[in-house]
Amino acid sequence: MELHEYASHDATGLRALIASGQVKAQEVEDVARRALTAAHADLHALTGPLYEPALVHDPDGPFGGVPFLIKDSGPFARGTAFHLGSRAIRGVIAETDHELMARFRAAGLVTLGQTTAPEFGLSFSTEPVLHGPTRNPWAPDRGVGGSSGGAAALVAAGAVPMAHANDGAGSIRVPASACGLVGLKPSRGRTPCGPATGEVAFGQTYEFALTRTVRDAAALLDAVSAPHHGEKHQAPPPVRPFAHETRATPGRLRVALSVAPWSGVPVDPEVASATETVGALLEWLGHAVETARPEIDPEDVVESMMLSGIASGLAVLRGGRGRRPDPSLLEAVSRAFLREAEAASAMDVLTMMDAQHRVARPIGLFFAHRYDVLVTPTLGQLPAPHGTLDYDNPAHDARGWLRTLFAYGPFTAPFNASGTPAISLPLGQSRAGLPIGVQLAAGYGREDLLLRLAAQLEEAAPWKDRRPSLFIG
After folding, report:
1. Which residues of the chain have pLDDT under 70?
2. Per the confidence metrics, is the pTM higher than 0.90?
3. Catalytic site residue 225?
4. How many structural domains is the chain composed of?
5. Is 71 a catalytic residue?
């Protein structure tokens, strides 16, 4: 198998070749290793050497033999090191598998390495001091988004067909937009959080993956999304496999469209235009489209996301057995969130949780009574030049940092607070050839609806042949 042949297939396509005997799984792994080595040299998207051998997996799983990567903020794999993108966490070895990691193994995914992430995952850029900036295969002078930036860069470059990602305020969807990928954030409780935690960031962080096709997102969700015993949140089971939804018509949907952020920050005209073009396409496909959005106080979004930052600080303290990490090894914004975590009272946390509910309720009512889907830009801007979001800038306090993030990506975080699913699709492109993601959001547990509509849009406005300049094939 040549590099260009390997890179031309999504995960479903590679698995079909392996299952039919047209290519051996070892041959696919060998070419993936070459692809990853070549892509990393350009993109700087791996945290270290590839795993040798690959992590143990079931070759007969639904993705048996398909190359895969995990992110440096979990899911942790037993016996492997993790760093959380930080100089302060180096050399820590995971003692057990995250439940999602066990499911990745059972699915047959061949985990070959670990991807870069910003320190503690608290940024929409992937430029940690520990590793330096990860470069965008569409434009190496621009960032890949965050926090699942290394994963996005390598999937977009064709080095692997999909890779693990997680999302605490947009960390699947933001890099999907910046790198021209499919990024599904599932409903709260759809994918597991355990065994170390019952919920991550007060239920605002979600585990899944980045893919190049909608069918891969659906099939992987089928493989890893069954409820886990004893978890606090469990999404309603699907009526039929999610993979079936990609072959089903969505019917005529009530679609709300908004290119105006709740916070009122400016949106790049090319981003707004790409989103409005999708609205026109949806009308042409027969859906009822009108301008609307749930009403949300943007300060409530900031306060609800403070919970995520405080949770990260508490996790650092708990991981260090209550000992404060060496501040000189932390980046400036991490130090700010650590101070917030140490100073926060129970009343402070309850106040932030109240803000989370004030974001969640209008979103829930919006989908329950008025609309099936909300369409927005994913990011408010085109992929940012390196250094735009400087996590190590001591001028930022915790809330100021969140406002900076949400000036760049103002559309994603509300759906972390609400627990409802959202997906970014690579439906737009700037005049300079940069990818533009469009976000679709739906009611709680309605990944089936999102996948039906996403597949319809993928067929109507395909992106398969749109490839970055640094594509290994």
Report:
1. 317-323
2. yes
3. no
4. 1
5. yes
